Amino acid sequence: MYRVGDKIVYPMYGAGVIESIEEKEVLGKKQLYYIMRISSGDMKVMIPMAKCDDIGVRFVIDKQEAVRVLDAFRKAPVTDDTNWNKRHRDNMEKIRSGDVYQVLEVVKDLMYRDKSKGLSTSERKILNSAKQIMVSELVLSSVADEEDIESIICDTVEQLL
């Protein structure tokens, strides 16, 4: 399905490039794995080839779609659910979806909440994870570099305050 050099998104981890395809034995079972380097940071992940569809692995969006994502980030309304449990559950579900538009909602909502009310340690971790997932995909789409993307999303949230 995917080849070495393909740019893919692994929900909950972010976007990266497949460096190799290797057979590994895990828990006594041999399988083929994509070895992917996450674009931000120096992390490698092993993705079982047989589980890619179940996990939600997909190709990175193209540059035109990335422009639409940044525009959607600017226009997305902020939702401010006061129920922590519901907010946490909804945010995790959006991140697990692997849909960059749902992840951008998490990023915008939590960044706004952080600036206006502050975040718990748990929500700060979710924000950092969601932001890394979103930014890594946008960087690999070649729409802008990491610094520019960070600046765009920070400026957008600042304008709401």
What does this structure look like?
The chain is α+β, with helices and mostly antiparallel strands and 161 residues long. The protein folds into 2 domains: 7-59, Thrombin, subunit H (Beta Barrel); 63-158, CarD-like, C-terminal domain (Methane Monooxygenase Hydroxylase, Chain G, domain 1, Up-down Bundle), CATH 1.20.58.1290. It has helices spanning 52-55, 63-75, 84-97, 100-116, 121-140, 146-158; strands spanning 7-10, 14-26, 29-38, 44-48, 58-59. It has a 5-stranded antiparallel beta sheet. Strand 1 and strand 2 form a beta hairpin. Helix 4 (100-116) packs across helix 5 (121-140) and helix 4 packs across helix 6. It is globular and about 50 Å long. The N and C termini lie far apart (45 Å). The model has no long low-confidence stretch (mean pLDDT 93).
Weakly predicted, low-confidence segments: none
Q: If you consult CATH, what is the topology of the largest domain?
A: Methane Monooxygenase Hydroxylase, Chain G, domain 1
**Class from helix and strand fractions:** alpha+beta
Average of pLDDT: 93
Tally of contiguous helical segments: 6
Our Rg estimate from Cα atoms comes to 17 Å
Number of strands: 5
Largest sheet: 5 strands, antiparallel
Write the CATH homologous superfamily of the largest domain.
CarD-like, C-terminal domain
Assign the CATH architecture of the largest domain. Answer: Up-down Bundle
> At the first level of CATH, what is the class of the largest domain?
Mainly Alpha
Order of helices and strands: EEEEHEHHHHH
Proportion of β residues? 15-25%
Strand order within the widest beta sheet: 4-3-2-1-5
- Measured distance between first and last alpha carbons: 45 Å
Instruction: State the helical fraction.
Output: 40-55%
Overall number of structural domains? 2
Principal-axis shape equals globular
